[in-house]
Amino acid sequence: MSGRGVWLRTRARLRRFPALLAGCGEQAAAYGRCVAAAAGGTAELRRDACLEEFKALRDCFARAAKATPK
């Protein structure tokens, strides 16, 4: 089994990433604002601090990936 096919498929998926992310701009911005606010100043970013925003971004991204032809 050749490893080359794996890299070709991976590269093809990564090429779609910017277009998929562009479709979820609102969710990405909300997640970014949450992370920036949670880690602002001397505060330490805690696990699950922005879980709700992350789930919204993940769901949007999954819907976009499912709707996009390969």
Task: Explain what you see.
The chain is an all-alpha fold. It is built from three helices and no strands. Helix 2 (25-38) packs antiparallel against helix 3 (51-67).
Q: Can you give the mean pLDDT?
A: 85
Strand content: under 5%
Let me know the number of strands: 0
Helix and strand succession? Answer: HHH
Give the count of helical stretches.
3
Query: Helical percent range?
Result: over 70%
Gross geometry: elongated
Radius of gyration: 16 Å
Topology:
Layout: H1 4-22, H2 25-38, H3 51-67
Helix pairs in contact: 2-3
What is this entry, summarized?
This protein is 71% helix and 0% strand.
Tags for this model:
mainly alpha, 70 residues
